[in-house]
Amino acid sequence: MSGDPGPPQLCCIFKWLNNYYVNKSGSDFSGNGTIDNPFKSLCNPLLSIINEIKDPLTIVQVFIGSGNYNNLNCTKEFNSKINLLSFSPYKNNNNNNNNNNNNNNNNNNNNNNNGQGDIIITNFNFQIKGSTVQLSGLKLIYDIENNSMEKIKINDSSKLIISGCDITLENQLIGSYFIHSYGSYIGLLKSNIKSSSKIMYIENDSSGSIKNCLLKDIVSNQESIVVIDSYLDTVDTIFENIYSIGTSFLNSNSSIVTFSNITFLNLLVDGFHPFTSFSNSLIDFSGFTIKNSFFQRGFLRIKNTNTSIEGGVFLNNKAYGSNSETDSLIIIEDSIVVSILDCNFNGNSISSFFFFQNSKIMIESSTFIDNISTFLVSNNSFVFLFGVEFSNCKSSLSKFLFSLYQSISLFDGISIFSNSFMGSVLQCIECSSSFENLKFYNNEFFKNPLYSNDDDDNNDNTSAFNIKDGLVNIINSNIHSNIHWSNNLIELKEKSNINFTNTQFNNNQIKKENYNLISIEYSIVRFKSVNLENTKTISGAIGIFNNSLFGSTNSNYSNNYCSTSGSVFYFNNNSNFLNSTINELLNNTFNNNHAVISGGVLFSIDSIVLNIQDKQFNNIFSNNSAFFGDIYASNPTSIRVELPSSYNLRLESIIRLYDQYNNLIIRNIYDIEVMVTMMINNNNNNNNNNNNNNNNNNNNNNNNNNNNNNNNNNNNNNNNNNNNNNNNNGSLMVKTLNTAIKNGFGLFDFSFKSIGKNGESIYIYGNYYNFTIYTNRSLTNIPNYSGSFIMNSSNLCPLQYQYYDDGECKFCQVGSILSSSFNDGGEISCIECFSNTVCLGSVVYAIDNYYLLINNKTAIGSYQCPVGICGNSLCIATPLNTGLLCLECMDGNSKNGFYCCSSGQPWLIIIYIIFIILFGCLLSLIKYCNRLTNSIFKSAIVFFQINSMIFYAYPGLYFIQLFRFSIDFISNVCIFNQFNYLYKSIITLISILIVIGLSLTDFSLKVLIKFNFFPKFSKRLLKSKISKQLSNNSQSNIFKSIYNLYLILFQPILYNLISILSVKEINGKKFLLIDPSISLENNNNNKVILAFISILSILLLLSIPLILIVSKFLKNNFFNINNNIGGNYKKSFKYWDLLWLSINTLICIFSVILLYSPDYQCIVIFTIVFIFSFLNYYFQPQRNSTIYQFDNFSNLLQIIMISFVGSFVFQSIPLKFSGLLITILSHLLIFYLIKIKL
């Protein structure tokens, strides 16, 4: 195959130039072809003369005058001796007058320019061999056949150029082609072709070029353009109103065909073949438009052809067909290099755009907007999509957007958004697909009545991702704000695998019951670093069915909502979590998930799933909720019977209905049948034979009504009863009754009122139960259930603190309790009762201020609570306090101290910020005051700080917490909801840094002076500042102010550090002591926050000591210790501040670590404060007597307060008033300050 040689050059070197003229006024007999004596026709004798030319360098130009030249049939060939033969309009006509000449010249020029003219040539048939023929500015009409021969045939490297012509091929011309090229060149330039018939046949290494042409109003019932072993280049051409019937308009085999800047407009392709067909070729489409066309069998079919399609626009086209293999718009088969780039598909209604088979295809940087269509169908192919956008599509006519069968695909950077689908986005059958950087959002899915039965939801295959026996990877993707009204969003079946990595699911909704966001059957799904948030479903976000497996690592599940059961997971039929390795279920977080009925996180119908709460998996659960089973729930699986106690007069026994996770089934009403069996001594046998017979008959009737399993159970029960009869020489009595279980409980009467109490033994059997739901609305996820229950070792014992021993359920003796672990013999045994716990067999409780920790039915330890938090094993602090040691809050609310708040009051942060700013500004002023004012101010602030630490656990404190920079400064009021102690600690440190920054500036003094506030005080401070700056020891004065600031801030910094480093161990697990709701078990986020707080606090605490050590080492007088420390104290007590800091350090430490032992805390801190107060009173270290008196008063007031809090009088006061009383006593110090007129 050869390339396009381009049009011939008329300016080449030639030896002879022969011009001939043809005009309707001339003569074929007397004319000689000159301008004065032209020929009349184009054939004889003109062509005879031309064929006699032998010089190969001759150029022949034939000039044709206006007129109609009809029924020409030139049977001779143009010989190979002519370099160029040109037919063009006649520019001069001497037979007319000058005016006519001018007019004709103008007309001819117009004809040449416009490709139109009044020269009409009809049926101009000829052949070219070895020559070049050019037709310019003519109107060619063919309306009769030429004995089935081609109209124009070119052979032997000939060239035919048709430029600026208007060509009409009438409908009846179906036997031969207009142009047949054999090893030659055809050029159609700036010409129009219309009507029908065959246009060109190019073969045997020919080449063709169609440029700037219009092919319009063509009816083609055979192949109009055929390219075989040749080259065809089509540029800047329009194909308009083409009606192709029964065959392809263009067919190529073993050729190179290129299209550039082509417009296909109003095509109508009807029949069994596409508009264009290529095989074993090289195809290049570049910059083309297909618009307003209709296709029955598609536009393009490619087989074993390398193809490039770039810059295509598909606009408002239609194509319908049920078979994507034959009816797709573009069909590509057995092709290994196919590139589709920068295409735009808009407003089309087509059953399928692409069909790929045994091919490799890349589609890149394209848009698919507002189409009703399947985009691609792939069979055993490699498909790669990069940067393709799909939006505003409505797929009511298609079952899917992508269909992959036994194919491998990669979708990278795909955006699918704002679509309304009535089918799937992806159908993947036995395929392998990978989605990277997928953006899938704001799509809505509906049931498609065209492809489903309204009465059969199983045939509604409209899941967005429908995967069967496939492998799919979705990486770095975002799937959010999608709604499915009739099916699952993602569905896996038949041994499929799908892996999600670094993917976000957010705000997706499934509107139909029994469908999920992700549904898995006989398949495996893995989540890795996935966020599943804000999902709303009726039947759970992830449905794991029929022996399927699910794995999840480093993923977050939060704020998901289910209107029935299992907000995140819904299991059935032996499905489970992946448990081959621990790494399959590691480091997941489940927060704020809610199911209306049961299973706040997980619901299981009949599967026993892996316990993902096991600490080895390091999964975190918080604030998950349901009507019952905040985390796990299942169908009812067991009945527990609670007998009346021997000292209780009631005769009813209690039945409790539980699921497999020990959740009480507190929803719906269940009908249950109970059999009561009684053993009676021989003394009563004769009196009750009839009763025995009746009861035995009743028992037999029950056996007949039950299934085989129940028969076996009844037989076993009867055998056991018979054995008991033989052993006890007694007789058997049985009665059967019905009861209902409502809200998890049911009652039945076990007594035989006609029997005396002497020698009576009672056995209870729950013989069988059939669940029937009586509510108006049936819960399909808890279907009717039937089974059997027998109180034996497999069910263990129904009551708390019971253990099973030799056929009996027993309680431990008084003073002992059931062990939570097995003894050396592998059996459960009784152990000595815990300290601070009362053990009375069936009743176990902790004494006041202690919390009894219970695991399942067994107590595992007692722990002391902070003051006023728990009593008699109940949480008494607030109705919201619950959980471990009553120090957790319902719904994850925040705490003020240890007391839970019902809601947050964010506006209070304004008061806190104002205090911090005013406090920092006050410190910036105090540094210019005299030594007396500085010292008393420091002591007063520290007094309030110490009190807020010592009495942290008491409710009712107001405002004194502000002095240690706590945002909890109003009792039982939290500023922020769901804000734990670690975040409060960070705010404290930030506040301290703000105070330090303000105190080191002159901002406050400048404000007072500028606005003339307190002029006398301002002038005094300004004078003090100037004097200190002018003094020789000004640098020492700067250090003194920093040192005094350090003494004031030392306590809150140290308390903050100790509180976040103190750990409380409960049942082998570590929690933050000051807030046990914060777990320290493998929580990386908490560890990072703890490290940050610790490092910053330590740096602040060591700041002054480091400055002193460095200055001492460098012998820097600026930080001379002797001059800057102990200025308020006598010379022999200049290091008194070190003792004062040591005392405060001990108070901070014991205030935290003894929070759970209020009595010991009171004694220890009282001792520390008393010793320091005595030393201060005895040695009188202060230079100034006023400072000395103030320190003694504050110490004495603190001793009185601590003594009073530890007294019996204080403990008799209601707890809610205790903190208020402490607040009032603390503020007595302010009255003393007023008294001394500081």
Structure description:
The protein is of the alpha/beta class. It has a 65-stranded parallel beta sheet that branches. The chain has a five-stranded parallel beta sheet with strand order 41-45-49-53-57, with no helix packed on it. The chain has a four-stranded parallel beta sheet with strand order 61-65-70-73, with no helix packed on it. The longest helix has 31 residues, at 1084-1114.
Note the main attributes of this structure:
65-stranded parallel sheet; 1238 residues; 5-stranded parallel sheet; 24% helix; alpha/beta
What does the secondary structure layout of this molecule look like, with pairings?
Elements: E1 16-22, H1 46-51, E2 58-64, E3 67-69, E4 73-78, E5 82-89, H2 98-114, E6 119-122, E7 125-129, E8 132-136, E9 139-142, E10 152-155, E11 159-163, E12 166-169, E13 177-182, E14 185-189, E15 192-196, E16 198-203, E17 207-211, E18 214-220, E19 225-228, E20 231-235, E21 238-245, E22 250-253, E23 256-265, E24 268-270, E25 276-279, E26 282-291, E27 294-295, E28 300-303, E29 306-310, E30 313-315, E31 318-319, H3 324-327, E32 330-333, E33 338-341, E34 344-346, E35 349-357, E36 360-364, E37 367-369, E38 372-379, E39 382-386, E40 389-391, E41 394-395, E42 400-405, E43 408-412, E44 415-417, E45 420-421, E46 424-429, E47 432-436, E48 439-441, E49 444-445, E50 465-468, E51 471-475, E52 478-480, E53 483-484, E54 490-493, E55 497-501, E56 504-506, E57 509-510, E58 518-521, E59 524-528, E60 531-533, E61 536-537, E62 542-545, E63 549-553, E64 556-558, E65 561-562, E66 569-571, E67 576-577, E68 585-586, E69 589-591, E70 594-598, E71 602-604, E72 620-622, E73 625-628, E74 632-634, E75 636-642, E76 652-659, E77 669-680, ...
Parallel strand pairs: 1-2, 2-5, 3-6, 4-7, 5-8, 6-9, 7-10, 8-11, 9-12, 10-13, 11-14, 12-15, 13-16, 14-17, 15-18, 16-19, 17-20, 18-21, 19-22, 20-23, 21-23, 21-24, 22-25, 23-26, 24-27, 25-28, 26-29, 26-30, 27-31, 28-32, 29-33, 30-34, 31-35, 32-35, 33-36, 34-37, 35-38, 36-39, 37-40, 38-42, ...
Antiparallel strand pairs: 75-76, 76-79, 77-78, 77-80, 80-81, 82-83, 84-85, 86-87, 88-89, 90-91, 92-93, 94-95, 96-97, 97-98
